[in-house]
Here is the input.
Amino acid sequence: MKSLRTMFSAFLCTVLTTGLLCTSAFTDVSYGAVTRNTVFTTTAAMSSALGTTDKTMWNPSFLTEVENTYWSFAPSNMLGSTEITLDMAKNNYRNLEMLLDNGYTMSYSTLSSYCDEYLAKKNGSPDAFYNILHSCLGNPYLIGRPEATVTATTYNGRDYSKVFDAAYYLASHPELAASIGNNPAELLRHFVEVGIAKGESGNASFNVATYAASLDASVLNTQLSSASYKALGSGKPAPTGKYSYSWANYYGKYLGHYTAGALTQSSTSSGTNFQTVGPDDDIDSMMLDGAEDNSAATPKNVVGTYTENSTKSVYTNETVTSAQANLRPLAVMMPTDKAAQPSYGISKADVLYEIMEEGGISRQMAIIPNWTGLSRIGNLRSCRLYYIYAAKEWDPILIHFGGVAYMKGVINGPDMNNISGTYEYGVGGKAPGAGQFFRSNDRTAPHNAYISASGVQKACVQQGYSTNLRAGYYNSKHFTFADGVNTLADAPGVQSATNIDLSEIFPYSKSKFTYNASQGVYYKSIHGGAQTDAINGKQISFANVIIQNTKWKQLDKKGYLGFTMIDSTEDGYYFTKGKCIHITWKKTGDYAPTKYYDDAGNEIKLNTGKTYIGIAQKGKSPKFS
Here is the structure.
């Protein structure tokens, strides 16, 4: 049977990735706050160590494991504050136990009242969410806690026999002889509630200070070798090299409080990675054959950056500066929802993908090379696994607001650099750069989440991401462009196509294109009207439109889809200059570009300008005239 924690992880994936938090289950009222222990890293200490008062620039290499969790999930306007809201704690329950064990305090009556009201909302029928929250009431570090259940070796069900011996503890604390005496259960209570916080020993065999020194040395070694620390360059201060500032956490780590289904630490390119583990994590059997496991094609031992010497854009063939040519693009997940239109920054996409997802709706991924001046990008939505394979060939920084479990193992791989507004694959992973996202008040959630170019840059510093193209991942051989203008006049099977109707492929968005002969581009429509950019109000347009027929299948009862993005046997259509030809396509590996060929076997030559790529479910075709 699934653990309650695992069941809640699945629930949390749904509510967070849709932007609804917990309000889909219960309407919140204003509650008290969780108070932050002042012995943790303070704002002043971090500012002094890093030489900046800009808290969003703090690098995770300088935060303990617990602090890194706090800073990752706290809203940007709360960084450096001394309290977090109960809402934040319960909406990120997988961190709550560790937070409480490490010096955070919460009003017992506040949490108790919330549990009572939630249960009433559920008509007295407890669910997994209620059971997990209610279990917090027994946490020994809650202020105003109820009487804990204590035996000679256990406290609230946790076995402390590895670190506690009653006779040893009483001998070490003769002052307890009068108040407690030889009462093993009450001596254990004193050890857990008082002694642990002071770093005292409970038996002769375990010394928490010695254990902490060993664990800290391991943490320091990980931080020193992390990409996030190395990215700071010369003159950087030493990282913290601490697992925690709380003795309680060292005891918790040693006793295994943060392993099964809770928090574990693994070394990643950004230093510290928090992820949940549980029986639901084995999802390989649900993957689409041939589409999801291409680890053999992943470059290894990538070192340094790639220098692009050409100043012709690989995306559009237009002339760009050398600095722009060497800047990694953003791959931004944007919705097609009617309520979410228009998007901010979508006209900056040199390549725009549209692919179906569950629920009969499509989503877009905008490849934006020239992004540094954008003050608002989005709105932003969650990612799906097949978008990652489409993105990888551009070596981008992926911008998204969570995702689904099928992305695990790919989105959090060492080759991927992503910035996510919540857990990166929904039920787990990090939320790298989450503090840089913001919501507007002109739309309702989930249609109002954004990020800015400065936010992207700060997140890259935080996570140790390179903003320059990376050697081994970047491939300069993408589209082949025509020397002049390709009218398709001599192409085999050419047909006229001034109007392109994709309503059969994308029945919700009803994407359509209308050719403007005087400008030589196709203007895009969505939901029966012009698709525009909210920044400038202009309708987006493309010199090239590609429809890529792709093998697919439904992966589960929820309707999640899988697409075979790496293939060599499928076909499609290429539209340009009011004409159309039938094509075939192939992609040989993660970082290999997708190549397109006419029916004579020649690689097609795109016209200079932007390109739209519609990934069509095989069996669904465009209509054009």
The radius of gyration is 27 Å. Residues 1-31, 260-303 have pLDDT under 50 and may be disordered. The longest strand covers residues 361-368.
